[in-house]
C-alpha cells in the first residue's frame, strides 16, 4: 500500500510541475515558461553570436468575440489559436500564452526575415481557419530580432510593432524598424 501512495504522490507532483509551466486553458507554455526560456535564449544568442527573434501576437477584437459569443466560445478561440500557432512553428521554437489573448513565439536561431515569414504563416493560418459559428478570427503581430538589449526592451520592441500593426488596420504582422 505504501508503494501505491508513493506512486500517486509522484504522479500528482508531475502534474503540478507541468501545471506550473503550461497554460491551463491552451496547453501551451505559460508566461513564466516563456520568460525563463527567453532569458536563456538571450544568453545563448549573445554568447554564440547567433540570431534570436520573438513575435507577439494579439487576437484582434477579442473582447467583441467574448461579448457577442460568450466566454466559453472565447475560450475555444484561444485554444484553437494556440493550436494553430503550435502547428505552424518549428521544433526549435517555443510558443506560449503571454497573457489574456496575447501569445509569444520565441524563434531560436532565427533572424528577422525567418521569424517574420513564420509569423506571417501563422497569421494567414488563423485568418483562414474554420472557427465555430463561421466566426472570422484574425491576429496582429509584432516581430523583433534580438540585438543585445535587455529582456524588457526586447519584449517592448516587439510589443510596439504589435501595437503599430493594430493601428495600421489589424490582421497584419509588423517587423519593420522604428
Summarize it:
This protein has helices at residues 2-21, 31-48, 62-69, 71-87, 112-128, 151-167; strands at residues 52-59, 94-99, 102-108, 139-145, 173-174. With 178 residues, it is of the alpha+beta class.
The stretches of 5 or more residues where confidence is low (pLDDT under 50) are none
Summed over residues and divided by their number, the pLDDT gives a mean of 95
Rough outline: flat
Distance between the termini: 64 Å
The ordered H/E elements are HHEHHEEHEHE
Count of distinct strands: 5
Strand proportion: 15-25%
Overview of this structure, please?
The longest helix has 20 residues, at 2-21. This protein is α+β, with helices and mostly antiparallel strands and 178 residues long. It starts with a helix and ends with a strand. The protein has helices at residues 2-21, 31-48, 62-69, 71-87, 112-128, 151-167; strands at 52-59, 94-99, 102-108, 139-145, 173-174. It has a five-stranded mixed beta sheet, with helices on both faces. The model has no long low-confidence stretch (mean pLDDT 95). The protein has six helices and five strands, in the order ααβααββαβαβ. It is flat. Strand 2 and strand 3 (102-108) form a beta hairpin. Helix 3 (62-69) packs across helix 4 (71-87).
Amino acid at each position: 500500500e505504501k508503494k501505491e501512495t508513493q506512486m500517486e504522490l509522484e504522479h500528482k507532483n508531475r502534474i503540478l510541475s507541468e501545471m506550473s509551466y503550461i497554460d491551463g486553458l491552451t496547453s501551451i507554455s505559460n508566461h513564466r515558461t516563456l520568460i525563463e526560456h527567453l532569458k536563456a535564449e538571450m544568453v545563448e544568442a549573445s554568447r554564440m553570436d547567433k540570431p534570436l527573434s520573438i513575435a507577439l501576437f494579439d487576437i484582434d477584437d477579442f473582447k467583441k468575440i467574448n461579448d457577442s459569443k460568450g466566454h466559453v466560445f472565447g475560450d475555444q478561440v484561444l485554444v484553437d489559436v494556440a493550436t494553430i500557432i503550435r502547428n505552424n512553428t518549428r521544433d526549435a521554437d517555443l510558443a506560449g500564452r503571454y497573457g489574456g489573448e496575447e501569445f509569444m513565439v520565441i524563434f531560436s536561431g532565427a533572424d528577422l526575415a525567418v521569424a517574420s515569414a513564420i509569423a506571417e504563416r501563422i497569421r494567414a493560418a488563423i485568418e483562414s481557419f474554420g472557427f465555430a459559428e463561421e466566426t472570422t478570427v484574425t491576429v496582429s503581430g509584432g516581430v523583433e530580432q534580438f540585438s543585445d538589449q535587455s529582456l524588457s526592451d526586447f519584449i517592448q520592441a516587439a510589443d510596439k510593432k504589435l501595437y503599430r500593426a493594430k493601428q495600421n488596420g489589424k490582421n497584419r504582422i509588423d517587423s519593420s524598424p522604428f
